[in-house]
Design brief:
With 278 residues, the protein is an all-alpha fold. The protein is built from 13 helices and no strands. It has 2 domains: 2-35; 62-277, MetI-like (MetI-like fold), CATH 1.10.3720.10. The chain is globular and about 75 Å long.
Length: 278
């Protein structure tokens, strides 16, 4: 009985600690969002108060709509992120299937090569990447960002998906081969079995792509190719004293990745849990 009580209190203490940490981490985000809907005087006089009928204003968002192209920046970020994630999943799942299914002489070296890609930051090759994009005439295009982010996400994605695919029962794939299924057909049949791993890859790869400022600033700084983070950064530098507009820009830059993370959080947790159990 005493042991059960101690376990209950341990669970309560763990959940209380996690809730307290979550509240501490989310508090600045909520503060930015709330103050973006208040007038400038109230932002400084009552920063923790909720906006009411007297203090509520949309001046910051009106400034954004009249002076910046945030809808274009959002579309660029969405296209870059969605395209990069799609390419990461397709290319990495094919590579992981080959590494997990086929035994060949370079199997171990290929996996080691991809593992090195996880450890070495891609930003170390920025000069070489810029030269390559200039020679391919891809500077100030979204394709330059899509290709870079795809290359950045493939090593970790292959590592995660290979570990999951090696756990799949070989009897299922052998039975499909006996029935005359091609290797591509078997590959497509294995994808639903590794959905938690794919969800984990999407969640892990999504935030660094969406929040990146380095490569958009170097490879796609043009007005028509700016991502949301780069557009917000440029806007903050121009309207640094317009606190309503600054908070509105930060809100628009913060909300999408938070919402996307909540969409993929269940898959991320399932993927981590499944990997721990296996």
């Amino acid at each position: 009985m005493a042991k059960s009580y101690s376990q209950i209190w341990r669970v309560i203490a763990t959940h209380a600690t996690l809730l307290a940490y979550s509240a501490f981490a989310l508090f600045p985000v909520l503060l930015i969002i709330l103050n973006s809907f208040k007038d400038r005087l109230t932002i400084f006089s009552s920063p923790f108060a909720l906006p009411d009928a007297e203090t509520f204003t949309l001046d910051g968002y009106q400034t954004l709509s009249s002076t910046a192209h945030f809808e274009l920046f959002f579309l660029n970020s969405f296209l870059v992120t969605a395209s990069s994630l799609a390419l990461i999943v397709v290319v990495s799942s094919m590579a992981a299937f080959a590494l997990a299914e086929y035994k060949f002489s370079l199997n171990f070296l290929t996996g080691l090569y991809l593992a090195i890609g996880i450890m070495v930051p891609i930003r170390l090759g920025t000069v070489g990447i810029l030269r390559m994009m200039v020679s391919l005439h891809l500077v100030n295009t979204l394709w330059s960002l899509i290709l870079i982010y795809t290359a950045q996400g493939i090593p970790l994605a292959v590592f995660v998906l290979t570990a999951f695919m090696r756990q799949l029962p070989r009897d299922l794939k052998d039975a499909a081969r006996i029935d005359g299924a091609s290797e591509y057909r078997i590959y497509w049949l294995t994808l639903p079995l590794v959905r938690p791993a794919i969800g984990s890859v999407l969640a892990i790869s999504m935030l660094p792509i969406w929040n990146d400022l380095w490569f958009p600033l170097i490879l796609a700084p043009g007005e028509s190719t700016k991502t949301l983070v780069l557009g917000a950064q440029a806007f903050l530098g121009e309207f640094v004293n317009d606190y309503n507009a600054v908070l509105a820009a930060l809100t628009l830059a913060i909300l999408p990745p938070v919402l996307l993370y909540f969409v993929f959080s269940r898959q991320l947790i399932r993927g981590i849990t499944a990997g721990a159990v296996k």
